[in-house]
Structure prediction request, 200 residues.
Amino acid sequence: MRKAMKSLGWMMQKEIKAGIKSGAPGGKRYADFMPPAMRAQFEAAFGAKVKRVYQSGGKAEREKWGTTSRADLIASGIKESTVGYTPLGKMYRAVGYQYDAKSSSVKVGWLSNSAKRLGEKIEQGYTKEITEPMRKRLFAHGFQIAKGKTAFQIKPRHTFEPMRIALKPKIVPYLEDKIGEYALGKKVASGSSPRRYKVR
Prediction:
């Protein structure tokens, strides 16, 4: 049972990571993200180094990606690696599982307090105030924010609840299969990392 529960935790965190990277965890597509070319402009305005494809004279400028969404760019044949800006960035790396020997249970979720805070904020949606220095900086880089607009509204993007619903019917069959395999003497891979993760 211990081995099966650990395997279940590994499977679930793997599925959740894949769901985040797909942009549609549990089959529920995230709200639209800012078009990649526009996001690159925003980042450049605040001093971030952007991918070559979005730099002056790069492919995005030559082919006039403009307000084309990430999904449409990929559908047109542009490689995901070229488009960049994956859903939730690298946050999928902060998903993991924790096995509790005392209760023989496994918990799946965020592995750090900072990831948990940001993840919950993204799932709930939030408002980002537009300050005057921010407005001026964006204007200097070609962004003219409409008069009267005082904040950016970031739409909720749910991850764990749709994944919970999608994974629920898989749990019992997966456990049964694993318990059967281990009962028949299947070897468990050795040499795994001694690090013990803690889910927040």
User: Anything to note?
Assistant: Strands lie at 95-100, 105-110, 126-129, 151-154. Helices lie at 2-22, 36-45, 59-62, 70-75, 80-83, 113-124, 132-140, 160-183. The mean pLDDT is 91.
